[in-house]
Model the fold of this input.
Amino acid sequence: MKCNIIYVAGHPLSEKCRKLTEDSLKYHSYDYESIKGVTPDTIIASDFPFPNLILGRLYDFYITGQDRKYVVKKSCLFNNLKFAQRVIEADEPMIFLEHDTIAVSRLPDFDFDEFCMLSYDYAFKAPTALAKAPYDSYNLYSKRGVHDFPSNYPLRYYKPTKYKGEIMTPGTAAYALSPKGAKKLLQAAKKGIEQSDFIINSGTLRLQHLSPSPFRYQSVNPNLSHIL
Done:
């Protein structure tokens, strides 16, 4: 299963993180390609000329005049949507990796339906933004294999849209996407674009995770979605 590492070309910290990611993938014999990510300086709105999801989080940035925040988060979404297009073109599952991930084991043979989180075990641990109450006390333990996100998973979509109350993915650091899932993600975006880790929710896709997680987060989080 091929990995796409998404990084910010020319950004020193992103380039450094990407190199660590690549080294870990080589060590564990992954197939990968590093892809220059969409940024506020390179985004092409016509690539995905879809409306904002009214009352969503991305819409909030737009309607309140937070123009820079809006285009940064929109760029992140476009990276995920472009990845979905590559999955459909390849007609096989692929893995999306943000530049600050580390492979901690070889990828086992596994089957999943639409979306499979590959850093699930580390999602509520430092240095992630979710390493705080009430998430940090949640028991992430799962038996080996692929599982649906549990019904008591605490991370829920909270904006007043059709997704309210749905389980959300804990970020997009490392996940596998099937062609079926890619088509559903793009279809959801056509009806209204939303922040990437908000639009990937249980109302859009079947959320599953692999245990134990083959990827973790690097000790330094560039957090470029907040500062680009």
User: Anything to note?
Assistant: The mean pLDDT is 95. The two ends are 30 Å apart (CA to CA). The chain has one domain: 3-227.
